[in-house]
Amino acid sequence: MPESLAVRRADTSGAIAHVHDVLDAFAARDQNGEILTAVRHFPAREAQWANFPEWVKAELVSAYSAKGVSQLYTHQAAAAEAVHAEKNVVIVTPTSSGKTLCYNLPVLNAVLEDSDTRALYLFPTKALAQDQLAELYDLNQRLDNCFGVFTYDGDTPADARKAIRQKGHVVLTNPDMLHTGILPHHTRWTRLFENLRYIILDELHTYRGVFGSHLCNVLRPATHCAFLRAQAPIHLLLRDDRQSRRTGFAVARNRGGSAGFQRRACRGENFRLLQSAGGESCAGYSP
User: What number of other Cβ atoms are within 10 A of residue 207's Cβ?
Assistant: First the structure.
């Protein structure tokens, strides 16, 4: 590996020293410089903090405080404020920067304010949905189980599906299940679509090519079903670890009930883009 690509040694902790050792091991196996293009050292950065917005309910603040979250990063506070102001939001910040809180906070606060509020979380894989389900379960227990959160996928038992349709404030699913399991039976999901206020799209960079086109065509009837039944606007929150420049979606905002709704392409001018993280910097390796 060329000398110019090497990380300059500095006084570091044991953990950082171990990172250097791992990078050296990778470099030793890349004698021709064909695998590692570059190695850069970014100095540590102090976190930028913000208080919980005043409109967040006290019990939700207490639940997060019990989890050790007494303050927000600045990008989390900005995202929550934008959603509370009824803006569509795209969150593009680094890995482990707390993107989940960016949408859980305003969504759960809305549920606490109005028990009829519903949210639909879309994940490209069931494993990702399970990770988020565990986080929501934990918050729900700290809030005395005041809201219903369920996954709805191909493994969901038939006897549980009716309960999810009626009691699920937050429904976690995937685009394929939305296409084949929910939309064809939208009349059974009246409770969801009548009160649907938020749609969350996770791992935005995966929705490209045919898969992205498929999701676009699934979102159109999904938002249409909601607009035919609801007066409140639907806000889409999209999160990703990287920018996705070629991803397109159809976005609808209800400005006058079922008689007047607009379809919009999911482009930057229609969304509030948050890509400046307020958290500490970190490193990641993707083999």
Answer: 26
Please tell me whether the overall predicted TM-score, pTM, comes out greater than 0.85 for this model. Answer: no
Looking at residue 9, its pLDDT comes to: 44
Angle at 252 between CA 166 and CA 150, to 5 degrees: 25
- Closest to 60 (Cα-Cα) out of 121, 130, 144: 144
Q: What range defines the domain where residue 261 resides?
A: 49-274
* CA 10 – CA 155 distance, rounded (Å): 51
Whole-angstrom Cα Rg for the chain: 21
**Per-residue pLDDT, 261:** 28
Low-confidence ranges of the chain (pLDDT < 70): 1-13, 227-236, 239-270, 275-287
Please give the structure tokens belonging to residue 177: 């299940």
13-62 pLDDT, tens digit per residue, is: 677 788 888 888 888 888 777 777 777 777 777 889 999 999 999 999 99
Q: What total number of domains does the chain contain?
A: 2
Using CB atoms within 10 A of its CB, is residue 143 exposed (0-12), middle (13-18) or buried (19+)? Answer: middle
Task: Give the integer Cα–Cα distance in Å for 83 and 75.
Answer: 12
CATH of the domain at 238: 3.40.50.300
